[in-house]
Amino acid sequence: MTEGGDDMESALTAVLESTPSAATQTALIEVRDLTKVYGEGLYAVQALRGVSLTVHRGDFLAIMGPSGSGKSTFMHLLGCLDQPTSGSYRLAGQEVSGLTRDQLAMIRSRQIGFVFQSFNLLPRTSALENVELPMLYAGVPQRERYDRACQLLEQVGLGNRMDHRPNELSGGQQQRVANGAPLLMADEPTGNLDSASSVEIMTLFRNLNRESGITVVVVTHATDVAAWLERIVTFRDGLIVDDRPSREVLGAAGRPPGDEVTNQEATP
To answer: What is the reported pTM?
Structure first.
């Protein structure tokens, strides 16, 4: 293997061995001058125009902006779903912007959880098997997969739904099956949910962040969703135009359920 290949393997190993239990002030994500261009020549579209951002372990933040602002593109890069055109992206202190697609896939399977508007669950398999599947692809031994999947489902309140298929679960319960990783990326996670299920999911995110130290990044256009988060990063025209605590952006009226009254969690 070449020296450059050795360096990439070392970076991959360092990221995979990173744990969310480190001090919360340690930078988990460091992005510098990140760009993303789709197409070439006259047809080139510059989705990101030199974005810089630091996300610390244990952060609980929203990414907002109008359609076409670059927020979803940015989330795809942070989630190692795509590669930047230029710039630096350090995850857990290691440069990952130059890793191969296979290496990025390995990071996704071990370190990053995704929640999208659609639940992306296999309809003919149980909740337990859906949670086990990414670990199967990552080569985790069968017994360890089972134990970890059971633990994750218990953690999100689905211990009594492990054998249920997605069509036997509510929308909020299906979203919970899709959760569970040191870094959680969510793209409009409440877009297909009713109000009660939305509160249920955002309460879950908040609990995972506060109780387990999971770093949560939520892409949303909805201020009532952003109000649950502690920090709001706003995109426009491929650039970050604002980065402040949510209380400063939304004011006291932006408080989510549970700040004043702690027993408003929705029941499944």
So the answer is: 0.72
